[in-house]
Amino acid sequence: VLAIWHQLTKTEIPELAKCSVLMRERSRVEETIHAMQRAGVGNLQVISDFDMTLTRFAHNGKRVPTTHNILDNRLLINEDCTKKIRALLNTYYPIEIDPSRSAEEKLPLMVEWWTKVHELLIEQRIRKDMLAQAVKESSAMLRDGYKVFFDHLAEQQIPLLIFSAGVGDVLEEVIQQNHVFHPNVHIISNYMDFDQTGVLRAFKGQLIHTFNKREGALSHAAGLTELQGRPNVLLLGDSLGDLTMADGVSEHENILTIGFLNDQVEERKESYINSFDIVLVKDETMDVPNAVLRHIT
Ligand code: C5P
Ligand code: MG
Fold first, then answer.
1. Closest listed residue to residue 165, CA positions, set 1, 286, 45, 53
2. Phi and psi dihedrals of 58, rounded to 5?
3. pTM for this prediction
4. Which ligand is nearest to the CA of 213?
5. d(Cα 267, Cα 100) in Å, to the nearest integer?
6. pLDDT tens digit string along 174-196?
7. Is this complex's ipTM strictly greater than 0.95?
8. Separation of CA 45 from chain center
């Protein structure tokens, strides 16, 4: 199947013919892209995960930090806290990406991970006015081609919903410092709650982790009026949990899902191909999403 090159891939979207691009059903992808193109930009919205989807997984062989890991900076937390957070990462991250466990099985463990880390962060009395500096000092990095992606969506007035189980305040700072926090960007994430003196005292609202995005999507849907009346969705994620991010879109017509497969490639390849329309294997760029968008809009 993967060897069959259709006219669309050859002539219209050459990026889809790269060997890092896997598709279970190429014809479905083509039909969806055509349907979205016919419906036009006014019917389109983009829903994207943040960590390891809009940001790179690795750069020069080194892992790029998630929004949580950006907080690992002496300006914000002490050495003891760093050690504890790293120990939790070493315990729970392998569970998060374990292909042999179901999402149901992972769910309570993810709640445990996020809750423990958030408690540790609150103990550190993190200061709001230090976040920008911590992001500057970090090696946070958006995927190559990110500027084309964000700028194009802004120019076409296509809403971009960034749906992240990371830390919203840090996420905003990352896109701000990269000059792509445009007015069409909407964010659902875990936001910090600071007291009057600017010290972290809690996290706001319902906790969002990798495997409860569906509930978050449903509860926020009504509030996101800019996204209503746009039944076509381009969804980007790096976790199978990200596939539920569009569950709040009522009366959706066409959904095209793109999954970045960054880690544990051989173990997870089959489940990713069965779950996402397009799977990008160890691709640190936005080239494919950008090519699809260029074609639709
Ligand atoms: O933006 P996204 O939803 O991808 O953010 C969640 C990611 O952050 C998870 O994939 C998880 O691996 C990572 N994480 C982390 N440290 C934590 C909790 C989650 O790096 N304490
Ligand atoms: Mg992610």
1. 53
2. -145, 160
3. 0.96
4. 1
5. 9
6. 999 999 999 999 999 999 999 99
7. yes
8. 15
